[in-house]
Amino acid sequence: MRVLVIGSGLAGINAALLASEFADVTLLCKSSLGETNTQRAQGGIAAAVTALDAPAIHAEDTIRAGAGLCDPEAVRALTADGPAAIQRMLQLGVNFDRQRNGELSLATEGAHSTPRVLHAGGDQTGLHIQSALVDRLAEAKVDVRTGVAVTDLALEAGRCVGATTDARETLLADAVILATGGAGALYQTTTNPSNATGDGIALAFRAGAVVRDLEFVQFHPTALIADGSAFLISEALRGDGAVLLDARGDRFMASVHPDAELAPRSIVAQAITEAMRRDGVDHVSLDISHLDSDYLRHRFPGVYRGTLERGHDITAGPIPVAPAAHYHMGGVYTDINGRTTVQGLYATGECASTGAHGANRVASNSLLEAAVFSTRAVGAIGRGPEPARPPSDHVQRLHTHAQAGAPSWPRLRQTMNELVGITRTREHLNAAVDRLTDWSERGEAPTDPTLPLATLTSRLIAQAALQRTETRGAHLRLDYPDANPDWQRHSLWQLARE
What we know:
By secondary structure, the protein is an alpha/beta fold. Helices cover 34% and strands 19% of the residues. It folds into three domains: 2-181 and 329-383, FAD/NAD(P)-binding domain (3-Layer(bba) Sandwich), CATH 3.50.50; 222-324, Flavocytochrome C3, Chain A, domain 1 (Alpha-Beta Complex), CATH 3.90.700.10; 394-495, Up-down Bundle (Methane Monooxygenase Hydroxylase, Chain G, domain 1), CATH 1.20.58.100. The longest helix has 19 residues, at 365-383. It starts with a strand and ends with a strand.
């Protein structure tokens, strides 16, 4: 059996390692193995691993933050399989931080009702996970190819049978796993690496797979914006007592939500955005300097060094922060076993939409989702090819002959930042859809073969955002500021066949 894995983060490498136990596996990544959102993850990975916690409590917290759109079955799978996923990470060589007595050290983050976030190297959890995975990959029987971009999926009688690369090579496989990561780099201001451009969504959509909830782009509330780039300031700082201050130096989150700085991310990000708009500024401040400086340097070494390199010191006083594109709750529709609606095609990690996150992902559930559902996807492959049942919600069809892309990456990212950002209006979204459609349908074929994929994914995000005429979770419509009960449903899209 041949399995093709596209992507090299936690979801991709974990899937490749597991599949290599019974299949010939090829893993493709368009950059280096380490250039992933997994490697950049700071806070940690959430799971119910103590006697004072339980998967059912973790599930309740997840659903509470999901703004009415979590799939209960997916949440149960995520949280029930969580402890086993942590055991697998330990077996793979991830050295999570421990207390002096040897027990795992657990932190609290937004929307979690109890400490359940495991971390490594203080705030360098993703780096430790990625390093351990790459080490195990080097020992496994996996054909690893870096610097290879996938430009299309190969289909035969409606079944996915492989993929075509930018070198015009077609690799055939009995099963293809999309683990291409997120789409934050479709925006100018993002915490993601530059290769996180939503390729998997466009590839699956063009192959006829259903995609879901693409309008839900999570903007991390706290990033330090410097020299046009965004440096993530982990939510773990707020878990340890950091407070948000407006331009007057006043703490404002306590009057917004009972959990103050530890409210769900969408609420914190929207409150920051409103404070910036009210005061006419481009940032608020985050202050954790009331804690011991030696403790801060030890607990948050990555944030401490990163902010210091950018001219700020978390031990000395407040630092400027603003929301930045961070995570995509939407993606390729899958069941709880990673199966898409196209036979032979699987999706896992951030590029998939399992339904576990709803409209607003809980902090540190992303790494857990990647570990849990990549494991489940490989299990499904071992049981034999079977596509997911189409979702019960109405699926909208979109006609497109998209082969072209935006004139350049800067033009695409500027469009998404300005027209499809954290706050949205009908006027801006209409302008985005028109521009992105024109680029996709009538633009020129760019020299970068992944730019058409990114342009199509951007168009799908804008189209979905235009359609959802309400504010829910991470989707903030200034012209529809309230949640609408009629919209407590998923948005689903599929390519219209001629």
